[in-house]
Amino acid sequence: MGVMPWSAARAAELIEQYRSQAGPCLPILHALQEEFGHVPSEAVPMVAEALNLSRAEVHGVVSFYHEFRRTPPGRHVLKLCRAEACQSVGTDRLAAEVKAHFGIGFHETTADGKLTLEPVFCLGNCACGPAAMLDDRVLGRVDLKKIEQHLARHVAEERKA
To answer: What is the pLDDT of residues 53-102, one digit of tens each?
Structure first.
């Protein structure tokens, strides 16, 4: 994820790029998040003005859809599946363990900025639950130890780069 620092000029370019589409609000918000890693609060009034919406309407869209972040993510994003198949094989217990171990809840980032925890509803890996996704890699039959191992591997790969 190549996250760029906030730039009002770049946000304006993205808004302009998508504003002529039918139903442009979601594509604009997705583009902003892709560029900046989240939907910056500074962008909300810009989107509202461009689309002739109130700030509250744009904020409502951002807060309604769980995929939109209002704060920058950590260097790594762990998504835990919360769907029924994974719940039946212990994802609730796993979520509690992960939250306690890293000291964060869903939609939160560790104090060191290393990890953001997000819930997701079905990763399409139902036969291998509990399922998780670390960054862009789907993991199956995970437990806390396996998550720690994969996270350590990602951190080690970062250091090599």
So the answer is: 999 999 999 999 988 999 999 999 999 999 999 999 999 999 999 999 99
81 is in an annotated binding site: yes
Answer yes or no: are the C-beta atoms of 34 and 2 closer than 8 Å: no
- CATH architecture for the domain at 76-160: 3-Layer(aba) Sandwich (3.40)
Residue 126, marked binder:
yes
pTM: 0.83
25 labelled binding-site residue: no
- Both tokens of 13, joined, read 């370019």
Domain limits, CATH 3.40.30.10, in the chain: 76-160
